[in-house]
Structures
1.
Amino acid sequence: MIKGLIAALQFLTRIPINIPVDFNSKNLSKSTFFFPYVGMLIGLISGAVGLFMNFIGGSEVGAAFVVLSLVIVTGGLHIDGLSDTSDGFFSARKKDRILEIMKDSRTGTFGVIAVVMDLLLKFVIISRLNSSIFLPAVVLASGNARLTVVMLMSYTKNARPGGMGSMFSDGKPKKYFCFGLITYLAVLVFAFSYKFLLPLAAAFTASGLITLKAYKTIGGLTGDVYGANIEICEIVSLLAFMVVQSWI
């Protein structure tokens, strides 16, 4: 499993880990177990930076540095997927043309709008989080989003065989998702609070809606849709924390 952990860290983050690991289907499948925990690490690093900057310059400065840190630590990997998915899905074209647009390295109008709204929404929501829930919200929003994407890899159809998304889904990671879900729920309840299940439920709901949209539009999911799912589910989780923070 150690190769799976290293693969997850190398794929999801830009943390320098100079240990060679083959990105074959076996290692990628194992890596999915660690996705939510790597997500929590990403959130912890970004949240810690935000807390420090919050102390120096206030809530808005802290929120801005959380958003910036999320981009730096992940290398903007998922934001790129959100941009490509938005360009394709909102192009009002047929399936084959949408997939071509999503594969195009150039960014269109809808892609730019999606990225701007993604960063802006995260900034606004994080800046309104209470200090008592600030770090748990950032940590768990990142973890929740990456747990949902493992569900998609495990149970949905891939729309573009041979792409990056199919490399994960073809590895049949269902058992790793099930085991990861159980352990993640245990960590969530016992290390945090059972009330934090609400943002997780909101993230799963959002992920389900994204899946329905993807099936209707391109007949399945791709690696870009996985990235878009992570970004959207982070926002939904953070929004859920903001809404219920008064009684969590």
2.
Amino acid sequence: MPTNDKPINGQHRPNSILDLPELPPAIEDKPRLARLRTAWKESWEEGGFLYQRWEELLKARHAGWHEIANWIKATGLLVGISLIVMMVDTAGDITSAALKGLSTVPDSPTGDGNGLWGTVDHPIRVFFAQQAAHLTVAPAALYAFWQLAGLLGLIGGFFGNAGARITWVLFGCGSLAMIWSASPAGGRAAATGIAALMWALASIFALRGLTLRPIVHNHPPQFQPQFNPALHLHATLPGPAPAGDDFDDEDDNIHPLQR
């Protein structure tokens, strides 16, 4: 079979694809773990991605809100919102469990009303027993809720919480009204008076630091600059005449006075 072996531009032209020059072998890729290790080291070098993020974290401790990096602000807001959602969800579960527990409290006896504390506690139990007959809740649940409200008002008021102090005031007024309503007619005034004294003594702790006197803040007067108007006149006086100068010889400088 004839072949066409004529050179082209001084070079031999191959007749088939088998005569093509062999390509150099491909460079084998580095293992993936080695590439990841190299990228990790480069990111921590000066100017790398992780190095810059770490510098921004260090600067955020002493920088203001407007100087903090945006990704730190976004992360902080996301974490804060997540914590708030978790706390609200947990508080809802705790409140629901507490209300269910109060609704299933077994009935307790109203007591015999003996003693100083029985004089105050027995009318409240009787009042709850009378009112629970017209409600779908047990008297013990109402009594437990009344105790819980008083305890929260006492503790919260001691730490200066305004809502807890309002709760404590309403708790005391409601207790006095219940004692007055459920106490025997002959000892109603005495039972209500003893309850009022007990509530007043407990208010020493619940309303600690509360005063009805207006708070007056005496601040020293601020410095006010004084303004003293003054009028300054600038007059230019002629200088002394030079020695030996005779004005009589200069007729041009003499002008008659005109009226």
3.
Amino acid sequence: MKQLFLLFFFLFSIAVISQSNTLVIQKLNSNFTKEIKENKRIKVWTKDGQKLYGRFTIKDSISIIIEEKVILLEDIIKMKKKSLFGTIANPIFIVYGSFAIIAGVVTVGTGGWGAIIGGSFIIGGVPLVLIPSISNNHPSDKWEYSIKIR
């Protein structure tokens, strides 16, 4: 029984110690940091004009691998964390927001109560278009990228 307990304790210790590596993104003008675990979806723009999207793995302390291509952290211009939900939902929000803005502009032209209703469509549609477009961006001039190897 004692040997079984020691075996269980040893296996549990290995599982706790072997946590995944993380990509650390720190905002330059504050101490705010984000950690992105390995094998999460990200979109990366590089200095040579490439735009890569997919799950990333950490190669070493200065580079990551996306789509079987090695990318140095210093070559990244902008990084965006992309969840599966965001990949599916963001285009839907942008389309509905665009329709709301168009309906609002058309309705505002009718005057009277139409102007009030159309204004509310426009006010509701603008965030649906803007937030998915600008959220989760981490440009290298405002953020610093590093890798935490555990």
4.
Amino acid sequence: MTASTNEYPTRAYGATAPDSGVGPMQITRRGLRHDDVLIEISHCGICHSDLHSARNDWGFTTYPIVPGHEIVGTVSAVGESVTRHKVGDRVAIGCMVDSCLECAHCEAGYEQSCLDGGMTGTYNGKDRRDGSLTFGGYSERIVAREEFVLKVPEGMPMAEAAPLLCAGITSYSPLKTWKVGPGSKVAVAGLGGLGHMGVKLAAAMGAEVTVLSRSESKRADAEKLGAHAFLNTEDKAAMKARRGYFDMVLNTIPVRHDVTPYLHILKINGVQVLVGMIDMMPEMHTGVFLGRKVLTGSGIGGLAETQEMLDFCAEKGILPDIEVIAMQDVQTAYERMEASDIKYRFVIDMESLRENA
């Protein structure tokens, strides 16, 4: 297929109101601009952000909304100026589809923190050129600017590649930023979609990895995922014995909680990075910082770092643990995700959307 100014009618799943649930809808993808790529989506991962956005839990959803920002597929057409991709390429899109690419942050590789109006989200965002609403990967195809389309490494399974575009990069970026490597002692708090990737990635980087959880049932899973130790956070004596031990706590816990205990187990100059909790923190005593402990947060990574992460995972054979589902089962998947009934990431097979059209 060659570049076209014609729009693309597209089957999708989305929400029309906070209480509508996610169901079938028809959307229209724009015709190709000169720098656009058209992608036939093969798989899309499901993120907690999808659920919160569909229900307007954060208060800034614009309806209708088509979630999905862990997208993989195959290029089916390109604009006349596109040089990065060609028809037939295996490609991926993460949480953003545009930025200014000219500000200091963009030029430094932090497109996710664009100074000119912020990044354009893959869904529930506003197109920078025509102001239209962006729709995500719960759909059969997507059109995006070529710079924001990444390469899926050769040999990497498409279904497993999908969650790397959010869960993978969200875990990878802080590990790289804080120079985790051989000799590092890393604790991963929480063992869900983000946490299980944090364990795999930190171990592959050469770190000694400990899983922190109050659930003893996670001990066996932690070992299977490559953790070297398990620390039950309800065991006060065990937590006290690890004071001043870790270089990093990668905190993937998605709900509001007290972060103070995780600061106590850090070394001087150690860092706790919040990647899961999007909420107000409980009050904490600032005296804990007298030991030069760092508390910070991290989101996704920039384009180059995300491609680096994909290539690293391909080289090391790191893949998320997934359960592939049909598009028609996404509402059930949301319910199971809220109940933590998934090890560890749902991925939608988009062929199911086409077969049941």
